[in-house]
């Protein structure tokens, strides 16, 4: 994979950087979690310090290929300016008069941010010609391209894949770091190797479960996905989230894990509530005895302690997905206990990786700092696909 060093001297050159700035905004349009922006700063600053004219491009949300003010990157430009310590110019379009004028005004060491890439239908088009035409327009803005948005490298999109065919290209520091960590998880993990999986749906994690059955020593299953596992063992799960169509497949995983000697650890107790609400009546019940009128919304305290002990005993830990509905305080304790166990394991010298997405949001919301962990991935979906063994278009494009 080509790196920034392979691009040679960048002084005076215009470098297009694909960052991942897809951050949450509140109703007032303010950034509520700037983790991805902060993760993008080192590469942008490195290029600016090298004397490049830096043009950052990114997406926010899922606009339908047309401009939509609620998905504007302007608030992100403001936060990026604060983090860099100098003004970031902002183009009100991605390719067009404002982008051209903004890039033309850039001097050595200055940075500009283009408006949301997904305001142009060509960015995410399935049509190669339409996507390529948009990549052509982007390529005319720069002399070189740096891919630093790990959260989108699993997408075959104009600013991720096609642009690398049109400009001298390299991986940014963030992508380098992400790939390095994930290689350690898949190729040379220190053992015991524990994988903690949560989140709402087991169907989102099927590929990674299948692939990691041959690599991990134990899988700890929490979150909404656990109820499909409990159902596969023949237990009733009340009104809990259940993917009935995945039960037989999960039965196969349980049998396969037993044959391979991989331990799949399920909760022994859960916090069950009468509804999906912080105010709902809730109680701790056995995982194999969830009342018919209740739904499981968190792993119970006994399970949290068992999961934490397993994590602290591991030398490599990958965690993707919260243990419960952590956004509501009655159901946050399981996630908090597991997060603290990862912190403890990190301090004890283990490699701990928080796999982006809801997991990263959870640890920050619960008061943990990014540097409490070995690595917090900026790309949940990309991390999972990498661990599934899938080819990622955005990484393939950087290989030549």
Total number of helices: 13
- Biggest pleated sheet: 6 strands, parallel
**Poorly predicted tracts of residues:** none
User: Structural class of the helix and strand makeup?
Assistant: alpha/beta
**Strand portion, in percent?**
15-25%
Q: How many E-type strands?
A: 15
User: Strands of the biggest beta sheet: in what spatial order?
Assistant: 3-4-2-1-5-6
The helicity comes to: 25-40%
Rg for CA atoms: 22 Å
Terminal CA distance: 7 Å
What is the 3D form?
A: elongated
Mean pLDDT: 94
Helices and strands, in order, run as EHEHEHEHEEHEHEHHEEEEHEHEHEHH
Descriptive account of the structure:
The chain has 400 residues and is α/β, with parallel strands linked by helices. Helix content is 35%, strand content 15%. It has helices at 35-49, 74-84, 97-105, 128-139, 173-187, 206-212, 226-232, 247-260, 301-312, 333-347, 357-365, 380-388, 393-396, and strands at 14-18, 53-57, 88-90, 111-113, 144-147, 169-171, 193-197, 218-221, 263-265, 269-273, 282-286, 295-299, 316-320, 351-354, 375-376. The strands form three sheets. It has a six-stranded parallel beta sheet with strand order 3-4-2-1-5-6, sandwiched between helices. It has a six-stranded parallel beta sheet with strand order 9-8-7-13-14-15, with helices on both faces. Strand 7, helix 6 and strand 8 (218-221) form a beta-alpha-beta unit. Helix 1 packs across helix 2. The longest helix is centred in the first third of the chain and has 15 residues, at 35-49. The radius of gyration is 22 Å and the shape is elongated. It starts with 13 loop residues before the first strand and ends with a helix. The mean pLDDT is 94.
């Amino acid at each position: 994979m080509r790196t920034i060093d392979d691009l040679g001297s960048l002084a005076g050159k215009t470098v297009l950087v694909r960052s991942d700035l897809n951050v949450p905004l509140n109703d007032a349009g303010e950034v509520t979690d700037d983790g991805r922006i902060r993760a993008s700063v080192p590469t942008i600053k490195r290029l600016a310090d090298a004397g490049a004219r830096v043009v950052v491009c990114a997406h926010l949300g899922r606009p339908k290929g047309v401009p939509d003010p609620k998905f504007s990157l302007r608030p992100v430009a403001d936060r990026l300016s604060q983090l860099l310590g100098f003004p970031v110019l902002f183009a009100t379009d991605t390719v067009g008069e404002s982008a051209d004028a903004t890039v033309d005004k850039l001097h050595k060491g200055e940075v500009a941010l283009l408006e949301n890439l997904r305001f142009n239908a060509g960015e995410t088009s399935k049509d190669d010609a339409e996507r390529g035409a948009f990549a052509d327009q982007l390529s005319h803005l720069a002399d070189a391209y740096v891919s630093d948005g790990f959260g989108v490298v699993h997408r075959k999109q104009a600013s991720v894949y096609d642009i690398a065919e049109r400009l001298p290209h390299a991986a940014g520091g963030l992508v380098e770091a992400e790939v390095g960590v994930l290689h350690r998880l898949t190729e040379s993990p220190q053992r015991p190797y524990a994988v903690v999986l949560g989140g709402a749906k087991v169907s989102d994690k099927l590929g990674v479960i299948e692939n990691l059955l041959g690599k991990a020593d134990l899988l700890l299953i929490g979150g909404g996905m656990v109820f499909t596992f409990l159902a596969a063992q023949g237990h009733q799960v009340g009104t809990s989230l259940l993917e009935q169509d995945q039960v037989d497949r999960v039965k196969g995983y349980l049998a396969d894990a037993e044959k391979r000697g991989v331990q799949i650890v399920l909760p022994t107790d859960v916090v069950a509530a009468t509804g999906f609400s912080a105010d709902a009546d809730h109680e701790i019940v056995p995982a194999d005895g969830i009342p018919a009128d209740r739904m499981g919304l968190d792993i119970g305290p006994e399970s949290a302690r068992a999961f934490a002990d397993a994590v602290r005993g591991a030398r490599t830990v990958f965690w993707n997905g919260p243990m419960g509905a952590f956004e509501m305080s009655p159901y946050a304790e399981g996630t908090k206990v597991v997060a603290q166990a990862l912190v403890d394991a990190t301090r004890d010298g283990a490699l701990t990786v928080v796999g982006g997405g809801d997991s990263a949001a959870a640890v920050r919301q619960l008061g943990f700092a990014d540097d409490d962990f070995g690595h917090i991935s900026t790309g949940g979906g990309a991390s999972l696909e990498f661990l599934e063994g899938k080819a990622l278009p955005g990484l393939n494009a950087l290989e030549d």
